[in-house]
Amino acid sequence: MKRFFLAACLLAAAIFVRAQTADEVITKYIAVMGGKDKLNSIQSLHFTGISTGQNGNEVTTDIWKVNNKLFRRNINFGMGSVTTLITDKGGCQTNVRNGGAFEAMQDQQRNNQLYEMDCAGPLVDYAAKGHKAELLGKETIDGKECYKIKLTTKEGRELNYYIDAATSYINRLSYKGRGRPAAGGGQGEEIDIAVNYSNYDKTPDGYTFPFSQTISGGFGGTMTFEKIEVNPKIDDKLYKAE
Q: Parallel, antiparallel, or unpaired: how do β-strands 190-202 and 170-178 relate?
C-alpha cells in the first residue's frame, strides 16, 4: 500500500513538473512576442501575402481576422480564386468543381479551424480558453533545438508547436490536414502538414510577426507577407459568402 501511495505521488509530481515546464516555455514565447497585454490588444488583423505557384504564376493571399468572430482567407491564383470563410455562426468555402460557389463546411472541418479566429493565438491564455498544453520534449528543426508543445484545442484539434529554445519564437507548427479531394468530391486523405515560420520582425506599431512562412504538405510553397495590419476596420461584407 505504501509503495502504491509513493508511486502515485511520484506520478503526480512528474505531471505537475511537466505542466509547469510547458507553461514556462509558453510564457517565454509570449514575452518575446510583446507580452500578454500587447497580444490581447489585437482585435482584428489583415495579412497580404505573395508567393509563386507551381506554374510560375504569382499567388496573392489575403487573410482577415476578427477576434472570435471571423477568419477569411482569399487565395488568388491569377486564373481563379479560392475562399475559406469561418465565423462565430458557421463556415463555408468555395468549390472550384462547382464553379466557385460557396458550400457549407462540415461541423468537424469548421471546428478544426476555429483557432484561426484567435487574434492573440491559441497559446495565449490557453487554459482559460479551454485548451490543453503538454511539453513533449525537444526536437531539432532545421538545425535548431526546439521545445515541442502539443496543444489540444477545446474542440479536440491537435496542434504541435516547435518553439526555438534560443529565441523562444515558433519555428514550426505541424498538424494533420487533408490533401486534395478525390475525384467525385469528398475529403482528401489525411496528410501531415508543417508550417515553418521565419523572418520575424515588428510592424510600425510594435507588434511582432513572422513575415515568411513555408508550408510542406497540402499545396505547399513559401509565402512572404508584404503587409500586416493590426486592428484595421473590417468591412462587414467580408462576413458574407460572396
A: antiparallel
* In the chain, % of residues over pLDDT 90: 74
Residues 6 or more apart whose Cβ sits within 8 Å of residue 192: 174, 176, 177, 217
Answer yes or no: are the C-beta atoms of 157 and 109 closer than 8 Å.
no
Predicted pLDDT of residue 39: 98
Integer-rounded Cα radius of gyration of the chain: 20
- DSSP lists the bridge partners of residue 138 as 147
Domains and CATH numbers, the chain: 2-239 (2.50.20)
Instruction: List Cβ neighbours of 27 (8 Å cut-off, separation of 6 or more).
Output: none
DSSP assigned state of 47: E
Q: Is the CB of residue 147 less than 8 Å from the CB of residue 158? A: no
Residue 131 has pLDDT above 90, yes or no: yes
Instruction: Copy the grid coordinates of residue 18.
Output: 511537466
Q: Which three cell numbers stand for residue 152?
A: 489540444
- β-strands 58-66, 221-230: how paired? unpaired
| pLDDT the model gives residue 210 | 98
pLDDT at residue 54 in the model: 64
Closest CA to 235 of 19, 28, 46: 46
Supply the pLDDT for residue 20: 52
Q: Which residue, chain included where needed, has cell 508584404?
A: 226
Interstrand relation of 208-216 and 190-202 (parallel, antiparallel or unpaired): antiparallel
CB atoms within 10 A of CB 230: 18
- pTM equals 0.86
Portion of the chain with pLDDT greater than 70, in percent: 85
